[in-house]
## 1
Amino acid sequence: MALIEDVIELLEREALTAREICYKLGLEPEREKEIYALMDKIAKIVRRKGKRLMMIPPRCKNCGFEFSKYKATKCPRCKGERIEPARFTIR
């Protein structure tokens, strides 16, 4: 539960990617998947507090295509692989 509270505290201050969250909490980058898995639980917790977990969706750096899911690897429009990762914030 302490990890969830730490992530919530970070996201209340600024918009971050899962990798940036790992870095700021001193976690290995491999735990990025764990951060993504926590997002549904975090959304429910902050909703009870009257706040919302917001996602700035991933975006292709080549053509600007915005994805609807938080994890993307290849752009369907230009087939580029330069994807800016999703950012999360709490408001």
## 2
Amino acid sequence: MKLNDEEKRMLDGADGEAVRMSMEMLVAIGDIYGAERMQPVSSAHVAGLSLKSHGLAGMEWAEDLASTGARVKVPTTLNVIGVDRSRDLGFSPDWRDPQIRIGEAYEKMGCYGTSSCVPYYQGFLPRLKQHVAWAESSAIIFVNSVLGARTNREGGPSALAAGLTGRTPYYGFHLAENRHANVCYRVEADLKDLADYGALGAYVGKRLGTDTPVFGGMEAANPSLEQLVTLGAALASSGGAALFHMVGVTPEAATLEQALGSRKCEERIFGKKELAAGYEQLTSGKEKKVDLVAIGCPHSSLNQIADIARLLEGRHVAPGVTLWIHTNIAIKALAGQMGYVAAIERAGGLVTQDLCVVLSVPEALGFRVLATNSPKMAFYAPGGNGLPTWYGSVERCLDAAVTGEWS
């Protein structure tokens, strides 16, 4: 790779051992993928911060790195973790305490303690064509697709390395010619809510591999921000997509021709049958009784929390059922100010911050059956947490919370 003088100094250790190791890692990645040079980035987002990912050895590594004086060079946000730092949900100290230490080590390096998979809801919003280095699959596909910023599918270590150096190898989705679609879907099913968009993403994602899809037929639907977030999360978890286009909706797909560039593809149809298959793909529950209902993966927006508060008005969560609404500290503060948190908690639910079911250990608290409107949670929870899962709309999930059964 061709390094400029500043990058050579970093590689030679002029900015300390942490930066030297980071640049060495990034050069190796660049060599593997044929990058000719480094690309300055405006921000980084680090994932893999759960104790599940780090382990105790990773915790000690992060603390050792922070103790050397390592500091990020660009704004660097942190992904969701496995505990709620604002309250005790009953997790053991052996789980909670190391998890807190991991976050504190990264914050000591200058990372922002956002603890969320949606840092863009907290003001960290890359612009069109801006280069960033983000980890976390749903965040990656959002900034690439909905914002038109440019990032590869980074891992936690490479995203931290980018934060510490302000650089990332220039390959993959940083190059305009690699951002065109090569799979075409025409959406003929009537998508009514978030769960429908999740079923679309899950069905298509499973059949994509790492290809880039373009969706047609959606201009009139004009999907909401939350619907696009859900679609991307489902695509990225059920498959390996890091970018999608939607004709007339996303910034690099004003037309089908713009989305495809010089590429050609045969159009596939997503209709009622495929929509039903997407729902079936995300449902693993068999026992109708539900004891955990979790919403907010990716973390809930203020609009979603307002809707949940309205849907719970005059109702109460059934005995023996736990309702968690996951979000981040900033959105929770706004929801509290608006009275939504109090309304949800009067109904027997909990609005959590920082936390995500799939990166935590709810199974250690004795939960047995999960209901969710999150395609990402429905994909990961059966294997990662051992929880059979019912997948459906937020209305069906809240009905399950109130009755204790999936219907």
## 3
Amino acid sequence: MSSSTLFDSRYARHRNALLDELLIYIRGTYVAEEEAAMRIESVDPELLAQRSGRGFVNRDILETVLGNLLECVAPGSHNARMPDSRCEPLRHGLRELADQLYAMIAQSLLAAGESGDMEERALHNAFGLLYELPHLKQRALWNRFASLRDPAVWDAYLMHNCPQHSAGLAAVDFAAELERSIRSRDMDHYRRFMHDLGCEAAVDYQLQLVMCTYPGWRVLLYHDAAHALTHRGPVTGNSELERTPVPFLPRAVSELGGRYYQADLHPETRIGDANFLDHTHHGVTTGQTGVIGSGCHLLPCTMGGLSEKVQQRHPLVGNYVFVGTDVGLFGSVRIGDDAVVGPNTEIHGNVEVGSTCRIGASAFIGTIKSGDAMPGRIRLGEGVRVGAGTIVENSSRLDLVIPDYAEVPARSHVTNDGFGRPCYTRG
């Protein structure tokens, strides 16, 4: 290994052998039209090969790498191909991307003071990410599909060309059919539904609109890449490859996503798929130990921590949850499946919100520490309805339990009666 470069002939041989195995593994991931549309942007090998110091993140290269990953999960979405340009084989593009990933990961390890088997670790981690391409591609597709929840995908151009009249479209429950498709993981269900309406062509237009102009699925792809770089263990598809968490680079990817899309998603947050980040440019924040399920619809919100201890300190959000604008979830709050949290609501502390709960706008639900005594939790049972402007707080050491399917009137003030039961007063 040269002291001035990250690449040598041994690296090339090892990379090419791994590339042959990768191409076999991902066979069938791309149809011919996708391979023709994909364009992986190259980076000068001399620039990639230069060793750097502790300020290792070359943001120009990182932007190129992330753009190339977008191309891999949605060919044609980022790097436009000129009409007369030559279509390079898939192998050529993946080889270029492998070099870029290897260089960025190697620079990260060097910046952390790693040595010894650094080159092998960097190569294993680079191909560990490439082996996830089929998985990342599928996740990105479902994240784009979930964005069709936005009624604005019926834009002026589409409405002008739609055979249905506006009044007829207003009577159709598109959201319900989309939800059925998402929950059953069957996009064809929605296509059949649209075909029966005479609007099948609208689906491809809407998906292209999302791919071209919606930021949510892109920042989720950035997060997927960053999250993959925090993994450890054997690589699915090639057990001879062993991944280890990469220093610095996952946070650099996350920071770049925040800069572009105002969605600060910590790379260690666990996030499912088929999620719609709505209006991310107004800010979405998640924390290191947070969890977000699948099929969620998140408007600008904050999912922050309260504790300074190294423990579970961020919210755990279930599947198919709706979180409204300017919601704050702080601490190890648990939100059950199919729950709705209305806009401007704050939930903090040791709070459990049951499945199918509906929390109105501008509510406050939180545990309050009184002196040295730690308060018990607040548990909203399944199907609880909390009216707008309600305050639910618990400073008692006993848990405050609101039973299943209870209805808390708007602008109520709910406390612990000292026996774990809710005490209601009206504001």
